[in-house]
Amino acid sequence: MIRFASVVAAALLAAAPAAAQRVISTPNAPAAIGPYSQAIQAGPFLFLAGQIAIDPATNEVKRGTIEEETKLVLDNLKAVVEAAGMTMANIVSTTVFMADLNEFPRMNAVYATYFPTNPPARATVQVARLPRDVKIEIAAIAYRAP
To answer: In which domain of life is the source organism classified (predicted)?
Structure first.
């Protein structure tokens, strides 16, 4: 499923004219840790890079409970979405990567507060390891009708 979503995202980006692509960046979310953008807007779509529990004020990992890390990750995603002139309601799909799926119910309780109505489609997987050994990473796709 993740591979399919990546292929679809790549196809959509490839189909969009270069002029229609715009890098979205905000100091209200962590700076990219490598050669990638916080988000790319391609036409009506916004492709958000995965966010982890990094405090944007210090660019340091903020370790905590799964609830605390999930809140910070979603706040970081929200900051990037807002920098593109959208809201969390524009998010149509998320991919959640977790170090331990046993923590899913606790993560899900926090996640639900960010999407109280019409939550986006979601895939959630447990992975062997996440960047900087955090507990969670979330990537998203948002859409705004032209």
So the answer is: Bacteria
- Strand-pairing partners, residue 139, are 95
CA distances from 38 to 21, 56, 67 (A): 13, 12, 23
Q: Where are the domains of the chain?
A: 2-143
CA distance 84 to 24: 6
Q: 2-143 belongs to which CATH class?
A: alpha beta
The pTM for the full model equals: 0.88
d(CA 15, CA 6): 14
pLDDT tens readout for residues 94-112: 999 999 999 999 999 999 9
